[in-house]
Amino acid sequence: xxxxxxxxxxxxxxxxxxxxxxxxxxxxxxxxxxxxxxxxxxxxxxxxxxxxxxxxxxxxxxxxxxxxxxxxxxxxxxxxxxxxxxxxxxxxxxxxxxxxxxxxxxxxxxxxxxxxxxx
Length: 119
What we know:
The protein is α+β, with helices and mostly antiparallel strands. The protein has a single domain (7-100), classed as Arc Repressor Mutant, subunit A. 50% of the residues lie in helices and 13% in strands. The chain has helices at residues 17-26, 33-43, 52-64, 88-112, and strands spanning 31-32, 68-74, 80-86. The chain has a 3-stranded antiparallel β-sheet. The radius of gyration is 17 Å and the shape is elongated. The chain starts with 16 loop residues before the first helix and ends in a 7-residue tail after the last helix. The relative contact order is 0.16.
């Protein structure tokens, strides 16, 4: 039987997939960095775990591109935290990223199907 407590699977993300996951998470409302990483982890049933060394550079890149904006606020733990939210151009980019992801998934599924023998 599969026991999640004893199995720590860390999936390597395809390039660009982290942007999709961040934008998707922010679609549900503004969030601080730790909240984004937790939403990705829990939303993927602990399969996808994003470390801070990957998350914060991605957030800065998305902010630089104008797809997200950030403001400093006080968190639920009474700590100062930077909260990120989608911009209108971020919503458009999310739609593009979702379309790209759908094509990637379809391509991988096609490759996973057994081929018919030429004999």
